[in-house]
Design brief:
The protein is an alpha+beta fold. It has one domain. It is 48% helix and 20% strand. It has a two-stranded parallel ribbon. Helix 2 (34-48) links the parallel strand 1 (23-28) and strand 2 (54-59). The longest helix is centred in the last third of the chain and has 15 residues, at 34-48. The protein starts with a helix and ends with a strand.
Length: 60
């Protein structure tokens, strides 16, 4: 299993939980990963669209 798959499964489990928490997801953006970050943000938006537990911190 890839590292991203492990992290994604943990995010989904957190999303499905009844726990009250906030999670900040830090993303490092640079010119070599712009398209990957776009795909990541789209995946999060589609899956977690109305879940206020998750926030992004984008660094460059």
């Amino acid at each position: 299993m890839l590292a991203f798959d492990i992290v994604w499964n943990n995010v989904i489990n957190a999303h499905n939980s009844d726990l009250d928490f906030r999670m900040v997801i830090r993303v490092h953006l640079h010119r070599d990963n712009v398209e990957s970050v776009k795909s990541l943000l789209k995946k999060f938006a589609e899956t977690l669209r109305d879940d206020g537990k998750f926030f992004f911190h984008i660094r460059s």
